[in-house]
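Intended use. Records like the one below are meant for learning the mapping from a protein sequence to its folded structure. Do not use them to infer anything beyond what is encoded.
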Amino acid sequence: MFDDVYCEADLPPGHPESEREFQTKSLCNCMDRFTITKEGRLVLHTFRYESSGERGGGLLSMGMTAIPTGDVDTEFHGDIELVTSVGDRLVEYVARFTHGTLEWIRPLAELSEIQKKLMP
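Structure written out for the chain above:
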């Protein structure tokens, strides 16, 4: 399992502006949806689920509809690995949050081996 992260914050130079959706296994791994805001906060988008009476494909194939219930500033502290595909290549970044505020987003390859071992 994984979570989806949409990034409004600045990404490393050269990253395509249109590619802002990532996956991560650094958070809840519950297929939750998060946003890193322009202000550098990690926000969890919360939902409740109701029966829609319809069956279909995808995550909500059991006839459930997701109803947004609000956003929660997680006040996250730590590192999050962000992964996406750009064309045919895999792109991996690390987003560092200190006391709830984004410090930076860097390519995973730029981190030292010690920093990589300390990641969740």
